[in-house]
Amino acid sequence: MSDQRMRITLKIWRQAGPQARGEFRTYRLDDVNPHMSFLEMLDVLNERLIAQGEDPVAFDHDCREGICGMCSLMINGQAHGPLKETTTCQLHMRHFRDGDTIVVEPWRARAFPIVKDLVVDRSAFDRIMAAGGYVSVNTGNAPEANTIPVPKDTAEKALDAAQCIGCGACVAACKNASAMLFVSAKVSHLKLMPQGHPERQRRVLRMVAQMDAEGFGGCTNTSECEAACPMGISVENIARLNREYLRAELCRES
Amino acid sequence: MSRLTSPTSSTVGQKILVACTGLLLCGFLVVHLAGNLLLFVGPEAYNAYAHKLHSYEPLVKVAEVVLFLLFASHIVLAVRLSIRNRRARGSAYAMSVSKRDDRILGVRLDYWMLPTGLVVLAFLLLHLVDFTWELRPDVTYAELEPYEKALALLTSWPTIVGYSVGTIILGAHLLHGAPSLLQTLGINHPRYNKCIKLLGGLFAVVIALGFFSLVLWANWFEHGGGHG
Ligand code: HEM
Ligand code: FES
């Protein structure tokens, strides 16, 4: 692996506030270490901007190890950049070429309003979770884990769905800014576990209603979400959500 | 628990109805194509079929009303969803690149459902003008048996152009639509997903080529061959 420093031109979306008009601004970095992550490269840019007395580029990040889902960036038109199943914080500059121009934009969705520069407000996801993405249990000692048997393959499917880190790449990549992959992952992982069963009908109806109320688009089975998901969550979950929804609408006990 | 929603109040419910109406319309296409392939058999078979179909008018009226409702609900719901989906983006990306690497030649028919649907609608209207309402000024409908009527229409240039474009675009609509409707109805399993894609695509191609073959046949075989 070459240690050769890279020259990178960045075209970054700058927007002073939610109501402000945004625009792309161009920055040149002549000394990019190929082993830096994309976020570290932005850190370097920001240090320079601060030294120059300019406003640093606002971007979201937290864990920087691919588990929190904060680092939401549209890089050259792709959510989290060119690699599959990789978050922006895990994307390294060696995947670009010396002399590249990189366009960096925020997620764009009516339900994810821009806060500043590259930072968007994803609290719509929190409200969808609050509407039904939980199981109601009494507090107290945790019950013995093995008292409720779960078949291995069911547990695997639930865990696959539970990998969702709520980053919003599915919304960002979907031509309809649809949140169906996110909602279906949450509905699936709770529905598949016995603890989630009692509330399954109410859950799917409420979460879908909240998803619509937030202004996300609908699903057109385009599967861009699955390709963009850093956790590789499958649209199989969307089919499961559709089944859960049909079942709740048509076969409800009460 | 109280009713939180009605099936049509959510995007998921509406999309399921688009899929159901789409499925029923696919069923209609199969029956309609099967009937009209009798053109290949000859005037006697085709005329007998057409006369039999219209021998009891009230039943035809019921079928027409059902078909109208199917088309109307499919179109209204699909257009409403499409408008909502466009609005959901807000401001456009400067750059947008697919991460899917499983598209055939990079064709994105799923992005074209509204345009292809609208072309199918235009084709449908032309078809009704041609055959049902009999409004074409360049065709003398009186005294024509069904077979002759079909041939007269299928060899006129507005029909040749309209139906060629119409049937191919219908195929494009179904190439995404047929497998997509199964996903919408919750039918998805790793074990048979490949099969669904293949059979859905095959269905779209067979339907499109089936209808298109009627245009081809009328002009290049029947017309030239001087049958009947
Ligand atoms: C013979 C006529 C037609 C058939 C058999 C048909 C069939 C279908 C099918 C199977 C789907 C897929 C549903 C799904 O993805 O779950 C679909 C979607 C769609 N159809 Fe049609 N269709 C027909 C006519 C039309 C017409 C006339 C329009 C006019 C606007 C239209 C507009 C749409 C749109 C916009 C969608 C996508 C909806 C969405 O993904 O949300 N279709 N159609
Ligand atoms: S910063 Fe946590 S996933 Fe990237």
Written description of the protein model:
The complex is a heterodimer of chains A (254) and B (228). Chain A is α+β, with helices and mostly antiparallel strands and 254 residues long. Helix content of chain A is 34%, strand content 13%. Chain A folds into two domains: 6-105, Ubiquitin-like (UB roll) (Roll); 123-253, Alpha-helical ferredoxin (Fumarate Reductase Iron-sulfur Protein, Chain B, domain 2). In chain A, the strands form two sheets. Chain A has a five-stranded mixed sheet with strand order 2-1-5-3-4. The mean pLDDT of chain A is 96. In chain B, α1 (11-36) packs across α3 (57-88), α1 crosses α6 and α4 packs across α6. The longest helix of chain B is centred in the last third of the chain and has 33 residues, at 193-225. In chain B, 26% of the residues are buried. At the A-B interface, β4, α6, α7 and α8 of A face α1, α3 and α6 of B. Protoporphyrin IX containing FE sits between chains B (15, 18-19, 22, 25-26, 29, 74-75, 78-79, 81-82, 113-114, 117-118, 120-121, 173, 177-178, 180-181, 184) and A (218, 220-221).
Shape of chain B: globular
Secondary-structure class of chain A: alpha+beta
What summary fits the major beta sheet of chain A? 5 strands, mixed
CATH-defined architecture of chain B? Up-down Bundle
Give the distinct bound molecules. Answer: protoporphyrin IX containing FE, FE2/S2 (inorganic) cluster
Sketch the topology of chain B as an H/E string, one letter per element. Answer: HHHHHHH
Q: Please, how many helices of chain B?
A: 7
Q: Write out the CATH superfamily name of chain B.
A: Fumarate reductase/succinate dehydrogenase, transmembrane subunit
> What is the third-level CATH name, the topology of chain B?
3 helical TM bundles of succinate and fumarate reductases
CATH architecture of the largest domain in chain A: Orthogonal Bundle
Query: Which strands sit side by side, in order, in the main sheet of chain A?
Result: 2-1-5-3-4
Q: Which radius of gyration of chain B do the C-alpha atoms yield? A: 20 Å
Q: CATH homologous superfamily name of the largest domain in chain A?
A: Alpha-helical ferredoxin
Q: How many strands of chain A?
A: 7
Mean pLDDT across residues of chain B: 93
Low-confidence sequence ranges of chain B: none
